[in-house]
Structure formats: structure tokens, C-alpha cells
Design a protein that fits this description.
It is built from eight helices and seven strands; from the N terminus they run E-E-H-H-H-E-H-H-E-E-E-E-H-H-H. By secondary structure, it is mainly alpha-helical. The strands form three sheets. It has a three-stranded antiparallel sheet with strand order 3-5-4. The longest helix is centred in the N-terminal third of the chain and has 24 residues.
Length: 201
């Protein structure tokens, strides 16, 4: 059964519609399923950090891709697609319209991002803004987003890592759901983020 989310959601049109959760991202999954998905996310995160650290040296070695890394990379790609389908990935112009800015260009969203008020990811050679961070009815960014962006930056997490963490099931919550499903509980969400971000890799 689908459950309507009245706080966040929407598509690429930047409208004010709420959206229903997709069947591809259930909440309340079993413990083993949540932990398995956590392991895939962690493997992908480790892979990304290794590539970032080693850069050209790693590429020159052309190491064989392990089955686990291939699975984690595919899981990450699937998560991006679900995120776009379920919440939308907004352009700078769409963000400006949604938040009621008089500036229709890219500068407003970019300034808000630089100030740490918006989560922005790079996808298909474009900078986009995940739709789950907005309260569309109020025309504002959820307050907890700035807190989590600040925590991620302090922990040297990329914003892509943070965005994928939002849509990855975690055993931290009793229902073993996704952090994005707990946006209406900012204190619990912040505690979950602190617990995850401070893990030594």
C-alpha cells in the first residue's frame, strides 16, 4: 500500500503537489534487508572515497571490479533513479520559483547552497536539488537540511553521499526505514546522521 507524504515530494515541474511513496522504496523492511542495503551503501561509499583519494593512480591500475562493488554501484544508480522518480531533482530555476525568489536565474539557488541552506548534487553533468528537502506547501527548505549539510561537510561527506544516505534504509530507526521518511522528526534524524557520519572508515 502506498502512503502519501504531505511534506515533501513532487516532480521535475517544480509544482506544489505532494507525492506518494514509490513501491521501489518501502519502509519497515526486515532487519536483514535493511542491514544488507546498509552494507551496499557503505561499500559504495568506501569505493567512492577510494576513487577520490587515489584518483589517476587508481585508474591507471585498472583493477578488476569485484561483484560487491558492482552491486553497490548498481544499487547507488537505482537509488538515484528512485530519488528522481519519487521526489524530483530540481533545477536552480525550479528552486527559485518554489521558494518564491524574484530572481529566476541560477544565482539564488547557488547562493543558498553556498550558505549551507540547500543540498545540491551533481547528476548527468548538471547541478540538481533533491525535492525531499522542501516543504512545498510553505515554500521553504526544511530547517533540518541546513543542520545535516553542516554535519556532512564537517565529516567530509560529499553531498552525493548525504543525498544517498537519505534514501537508504537504516537499522538505526525502529522501523528500519529511510532517513527521508523521518523528516518530520528532525531530532531523531539528526541523531541518526551524527551516528552515521562519525563512523571511522
Amino acid at each position: 500500500m502506498k502512503r502519501r507524504n504531505n511534506v515533501v515530494g513532487g516532480g521535475m515541474d517544480g509544482g506544489v503537489n505532494t507525492t506518494e511513496k514509490s513501491a521501489g522504496a518501502p519502509t519497515g523492511v526486515g532487519t536483514e534487508s535493511a542491514k544488507a542495503q546498509e552494507r551496499l551503501f557503505d561499500a559504495w561509499l568506501n569505493m567512492q572515497r577510494s576513487v577520490d583519494s587515489l584518483g589517476p593512480a587508481l585508474a591507471a591500475l585498472k583493477p578488476a571490479t569485484s561483484a560487491q562493488l558492482a552491486r553497490s554501484a548498481q544499487a547507488a544508480e537505482n537509488a538515484w533513479r528512485r530519488m528522481e522518480d519519487e521526489f524530483g531533482l530540481l533545477t536552480s530555476t525550479q528552486v527559485a520559483v518554489l521558494l518564491g525568489s524574484r530572481s529566476a536565474g541560477r544565482s539564488f539557488a547557488s547562493e543558498q547552497h553556498r550558505a549551507g541552506h540547500l543540498l545540491r548534487i551533481r547528476r548527468r553533468n548538471a547541478y540538481l536539488y533533491p525535492g525531499f528537502q522542501f516543504d512545498r506547501r510553505a515554500g521553504k527548505v526544511l530547517d533540518v537540511i541546513a543542520v545535516l549539510v553542516r554535519l556532512a561537510r564537517a565529516s567530509h561527506w560529499s553531498e552525493e553521499d548525504l543525498a544517498l544516505w537519505f534514501v537508504s534504509p537504516t537499522s538505526y530507526f525502529e522501523d528500519e526505514g529511510r532517513p527521508v521518511d523521518h523528516l518530520d522528526h528532525p531530532h531523531a534524524l539528526t541523531e541518526a546522521a551524527e551516528a552515521k557520519f562519525t563512523v571511522e572508515w
